[in-house]
Design goal:
With 305 residues, the protein is of the alpha+beta class. The protein contains six helices and six strands, in the order ααααββββααββ. The two termini are 53 Å apart.
C-alpha cells in the first residue's frame, strides 16, 4: 500500500516538474519579446509588467507545489543505494549505454533470487527432516543398493583390456609409465603422444603433447598438468577431454575406453587429412583438430559449427 502511494507522489512530482519547466519557458518567452524603448504608451508598459508578474507568480506556485511533493517522498534506504555505480545514471547518452538501468534490474533480480532461494531452502530442510525421521525405522529392513564395481576392477582385468587395445591398433603403442600403476603413455604413430591417467578403466585426465616433449620433470616426477608448448596440441587436448566426457560410461567402463581409443585413432593421419567441410588442410594456420564423435570425420574448429 505504501509503495502505491509513493508511486502516486512520484507521478505528481513529475507532472509538477513539467508544469514548472513550461511556466519558466513561457516567462522567458515574454521577456524575449519585451517592449520597445520608444514606446510611449504607458498602458502597454503596465500590461507587460503585469504579465511578467503573473508569469513569475505561476512559476513560484509551481515551484512551491514541487517542493511539497518532494518533501512528502520517502528517501531510499541503504539497501537500495548503488554507491559508485549510481554515477552511471549521470551518463547523458543512456540510450546507447543503458548500464545504469541494467544494474538496477540486476539488483532487483538478485534480491528476488535471494528471497526465493531462502524460501526454497526452508521448505527443503523441512521435507528432508520429515524424510529422515520417517525412514529411520524402515532403514534396517530395506536392502541397500549395491555399489557400482566399475572403480574396483582387479589390476589383471585392467591390464588385459590395455593389452587388447594395444593389439587392436598396430600403429598405436600403449606403455605404462613407471613407477605409476595408473598412468599410460599412448604413442600415435609419429603424430603425437597422449598421457592417460586412469582409475580402473575410467579415464580421469588426458594430455596431448608432441613426441619430443617430455612427460617427466627434471626431478623425475610425472608432469600431468603442464600444457603442450604448441597450440595445435593444446586444442587436441581440449577436444580429447570433451571426448573423454562424451564416452564416459560408469556402468560399462570397458566400452568407454574402447570408444575413446577408437576416436583417438582417427588422428593417425592428423597432418595429412583435409577438413571434411572446407577441404583445406590449414585454416587460421591450424590443421583440422576436431574429430566428430560419431562419424570421426575431421573438421576445423570453425567448420564444425
Amino acid at each position: 500500500m505504501a509503495s502505491i502511494q509513493q508511486d502516486k507522489i512520484i507521478e505528481h512530482a513529475i507532472l509538477s516538474t513539467q508544469k514548472l519547466r513550461a511556466s519558466v519557458a513561457k516567462s522567458f518567452h515574454h521577456l524575449q519579446d519585451g517592449t520597445s524603448n520608444t514606446q510611449d504608451d504607458e498602458d502597454k508598459i503596465k500590461a507587460f509588467v503585469s504579465k511578467l508578474q503573473e508569469d513569475l507568480s505561476t512559476v513560484n506556485d509551481n515551484y512551491t507545489e514541487l517542493e511539497r511533493f518532494t518533501a512528502s517522498m520517502v528517501p531510499l534506504g541503504d539497501k537500495a543505494q548503488l554507491h559508485n555505480s549510481g554515477f552511471l545514471s549521470l551518463d547523458p547518452i543512456t540510450d546507447k549505454t543503458p548500464i545504469y538501468t541494467q544494474a538496477l534490474q540486476s539488483y532487483k533480480w538478485a534480491a528476488k533470487l535471494h528471497t526465493h532461494s531462502t524460501q526454497a531452502l526452508s521448505v527443503l530442510q523441512h521435507s528432508w527432516s520429515l524424510k529422515r525421521s520417517s525412514g529411520v525405522t524402515s532403514l534396517s529392513s530395506k536392502k541397500r543398493k549395491q555399489q557400482s564395481t566399475s572403480y574396483a576392477m582387479p589390476a589383471s582385468m585392467v591390464n588385459k583390456v590395455i593389452v587388447q587395445l594395444d593389439r587392436q591398433y598396430p600403429d598405436i603403442s600403449i606403455t605404462k609409465v613407471q613407477p605409476f600403476s595408473n598412468v599410460y603413455q599412448v604413442s600415435l604413430g609419429r603424430t603425437l603422444q597422449v598421457i592417460l591417467v586412469l582409475r580402473s578403466l575410467l579415464i580421469e585426465r588426458v594430455i596431448v603433447r608432441a613426441h619430443h616433449e617430455h612427460i617427466l620433470k627434471d626431478d623425475g616426477t610425472l608432469d600431468i598438468w603442464a600444457k603442450s608448448r604448441y597450440e595445435v596440441f593444446q586444442k587436441i587436448t581440449d577436444h580429447a577431454t570433451s571426448a573423454m566426457l562424451h564416452y564416459d560410461l560408469h556402468s560399462l567402463p570397458e566400452l568407454s575406453i574402447m570408444s575413446f581409443m577408437k576416436w583417438l585413432h582417427s588422428y593417425i593421419n592428423f597432418f595429412s587429412t583435409p577438413c571434411r567441410r572446407c577441404g583445406k588442410h590449414l585454416k587460421d594456420n591450424l590443421p583440422p583438430t576436431w574429430r566428430d564423435f560419431l562419424s570421426l570425420d575431421p573438421y576445423h574448429e570453425t567448420c564444425r559449427l
